[in-house]
Amino acid sequence: MKNVTDSFVSFGHWPYAGSFGFNTDILATNPINLSVVIGVLIFFGKGVLSDLLDNRKQKILNSIRNSEELRGGAIDQLEKARARLRKVEMEADQFRVNGYSEIEREKLNLINSTYKTLEQLENYKNETIQFEQQRALNQVRQRVFQQALQGALGTLNSCLNNELHLRTINVNIGMFGAIKTKEITD
């Protein structure tokens, strides 16, 4: 260790003026060179380094502030979106409830209208059956009447002779004349 401290204090190892040479003593030259370089760097680079560090610190702080602002904005947007989601979910539930009740109401209306339509069809059916029965009865009566009339005419024609026929016509004309005179006098 004594050699290291001696190299700093004594100039015995320094070459003479006017000569040029390399000092091969690494332990003597490196600490001196390093301390000079570090001293120059600290003296001249202190301001630049502190400015660089301050700029970097400001950039980091600005990035953090921007990130916090963006985070706050994102949280606000998230809360707004959640509120909208809750509102839409409540509206959807309301629509669902209203939809179910509307479906039930429409179902009941459809069932009621179907029953009414069936009742009307049943009434129309009964009316049609009654009408057809009445028409069939009328047709049967008309046929029976026609057959009875034909039978009576056949019997009359077979029983009547010309003299009886003329007497019936004269009686009918007399009755018709009496009715006419009565109508004229009234």
TrEMBL record:
The keyword rRNA-binding does not apply. It is a single-pass membrane protein. Belongs to the ATPase B chain family. F(1)F(0) ATP synthase produces ATP from ADP in the presence of a proton or sodium gradient. F-type ATPases consist of two structural domains, F(1) containing the extramembraneous catalytic core and F(0) containing the membrane proton channel, linked together by a central stalk and a peripheral stalk. During catalysis, ATP synthesis in the catalytic domain of F(1) is coupled via a rotary mechanism of the central stalk subunits to proton translocation. One of its GO terms (cellular component) is proton-transporting ATP synthase complex. One of its GO terms (molecular function) is proton-transporting ATP synthase activity, rotational mechanism. InterPro entries: ATP_synth_b/b'su_bac/chlpt. It holds the Pfam family ATP-synt_B. This is ATP synthase subunit b, chloroplastic. F-type ATPases have 2 components, F(1) - the catalytic core - and F(0) - the membrane proton channel. F(1) has five subunits: alpha(3), beta(3), gamma(1), delta(1), epsilon(1). F(0) has four main subunits: a(1), b(1), b'(1) and c(10-14). The alpha and beta chains form an alternating ring which encloses part of the gamma chain. F(1) is attached to F(0) by a central stalk formed by the gamma and epsilon chains, while a peripheral stalk is formed by the delta, b and b' chains. In plastids the F-type ATPase is also known as CF(1)CF(0). It is found in: Membrane; Plastid, Chloroplast thylakoid membrane. HAMAP family: ATP_synth_b_bprime.
